[in-house]
Structures are given as structure tokens and as C-alpha cells.
Specification:
Blueprint (H helix, E strand, L loop, with lengths): L1 E3 L1 H14 L3 E4 L10 H11 L3 E4 L5 H9 L4 E8 L5 H5 L1 E5 L2 E5 L2 H6 L6 E6 L6 H13 L1 E2 L2 E2 L4 E7 L13 H4 L3 E5 L3 H10 L4 H9 L18 H11 L7 H11 L1 H15 L3 H6 L9 H17 L4 H8 L4 H14 L1 H10 L1 H15 L2 H4 L1
Parallel strand pairs: 1-11, 2-10, 2-11, 3-4, 4-7, 7-10
Antiparallel strand pairs: 5-6, 8-9
Helix pairs in contact: 8-9, 8-16, 9-14, 10-11, 11-12, 12-14, 14-16, 15-18, 16-17
Amino acid sequence: MVILNPRTYDETLELCYKTKDGLLVLGPPGIGKSAIPLQVFPRIAKKNNREFVVWDKVSRDKKLEVIAHPEKYFVYCDQRLSQMDTTDLRGIPKMDGEMLESMPPMWILYFTQEEADGLIFFDEINLATPIVVGSAYQIIHDRSIADRKISDNILMIAAGNRAEDKAFTFDLPLPLRDRFCEAELLPDVKSWTTWASEAKINPHIISFVNWKEEYLYRVDELGKDKSVTPRGLQRASRLLGDMEITSAKARFYIALAVGDAFATEFQAYIRYFAELDWEIIFNNPSSVRSFNVSKRFAVSGGLAELFTKDKNNFERICRVIEEFSDDFAIRTLILMRDSSKTSFKRRAETSNIFVNKLAPKFGKYIINKDTKK
């Protein structure tokens, strides 16, 4: 099966929307199968000059407005087949004179209008019972539902866990799978790092995962410790907030979010960070040359944190980065850039050391279309 990382998943979703070819994405839990589409399709909606609407996040009145004016909206509709029965898809039968018709759900009224645009996302498709999946055949295969034709503008995709993820999945019938392009999504440290910086994930967590890449996604096969997933790392960052990273309290909440094994290894990273004397480092930037790899990761995360807290540190930070090896310099600059693109751009344009020394050497890695705006 074709393997996607978050970046190629993003690109594939855009192409599938353009061609209207359905996509089935399988992969372990918590890695972005449903989160990444929520980043991609608002961009597409904007290009189409339509208002992006997440169907289950708006009020009934807003839904009625969307149905009344389908040409104005791009609707993202997440339908969890695992939580449905057949009437949720076809509607409730009713008598209309001598004929039996169905009363479809409101979302169907939108997607079956000619001017409708958007996405129907069948999440957790292989957790649904076979009878519900059978009811989805007509939607996916014939692009019709409740005797109504789905708009040609609509893309349908599906996602689910793999059998090895112990999610109690059902095997999807081959004819149904054949209606989709099919791929497996796996986590990727480089793509995750870019996303995590933009999402304001704690820079120490980002730096640690770059040091110990196996901790981006880690499953305890015996089930005795909590698994680590990108979703769990985001949860850990939220729990940490502004907490002192070296405290026992911080370790407790990290373990709560992503397990004891991660917390134990993370504390080893934090020990390196706790030993850092920033005045010595800033007064003698060349001292970082003698640091071992583990300590350099701690410095990298610490510099990104210092920039996030006080943008006035930019010049001093750049003098330290100048002494780093190329890979650590690029990693630290990207963490800083993605944590605050506007501030980074403004500081970079006025910093002599960045303009004269760092940009000529690393500009092609860190000056992208976002920072040029």
C-alpha cells in the first residue's frame, strides 16, 4: 500500500478534490487522519470564494441558511459510520399519498443540491457494522442518497484504523475499497515538527521528539503504558501550559498525557536543559561547540522557547546559532520561524547577524513562501 506522510497527505487531498476521486486513508490512531483535512479544506474553500462550514459545529439556524444558499458555502461534514444505523443515512420513511418517501437528515439536503460544494468524510469507516457499510455503498458507489443525487462538486473520503491497531475493525469489502484511492498514513518527524511549531506545541517537546524520533508514535504492545501519538503530544503541551518544565508536577502531567516511558525519557532531556547557564552561553556562544548531541537538542529547544517568550532575544540567539553545526542551526531557526512567522520575519530583516551571516548560509531552508509575505 502507498505510504503517505502528513505533507503528501495534504497534497493528495488537494488533488483528489480537484479530480473528485475518493480517498481511503488507513493508519494508527492520533496521527492526523481527520485533523489534516480540517487544515486543507479551509484553504480550498477560500480559493473557491466560499465560506467554510463544519456541519456539526454550527447551529440549526446556520444549517438552514446553508441549505437555502448552497452557492455561498463549502461544507465539511464528518459522518462517523461507526455511530450510525441505516436510517441515519437513508432517512426515515414516510407516506406521501400512495408513495413511500424518506425524510433525509439535514446534511443530505445540502449535499444533494447542484450548487453544493464540499466534503463528506466517512471517518472510522471500518468500525461500522457490515449492514451500515452496506448502506453507504449507494452513497460512495452511485453518488446518490435517499433517492437524491449528490452534487458533482462533492468529494468523498474515508478513514479508519488498521487491523494491527487493535481497534476491533471490520474488513471492508473489496468492491467498496475499489471505489477509493487507498493509502496508509504514517507519522513523520519533519512534517510534524513544522506543524507542531505553528500549533505552538511546547518547544521542549518538539526538540525532544527530534532527539528521540521513536517517541513521535510509540505503542506499548503489552498495554501497560499509555501510547504516544501526535494527538497525545498536543495534549501534553496543553497540560504543561506555562508550567515550570523541570518540575515534578510537569513530569506528572506529561506521564498523564503520553505515558511513563515518555515522561522518564523526557526528564533525561530536561536534566540537560536544567544544567544550561544561559548567561555563559550568551556571553560565550562558541561554548556550544563542545556540547554533546543531547545537550545541543536542549539548547535548541531552549533558544526557541526564549524567542517565543521575548522576541528581543533574537540577536543574542542568532549569535549562538552561528556557532551550531548546520543541522542544529537550521532546526532551531525553523522552530523560531514557525512559532511566530510575522515576528521572525520582522526581526530577521533588521538583524545584522541574520542578514549578513545566517541568511546567506541557511536562507534557502528557512525563508519560505510564508515568511516572504
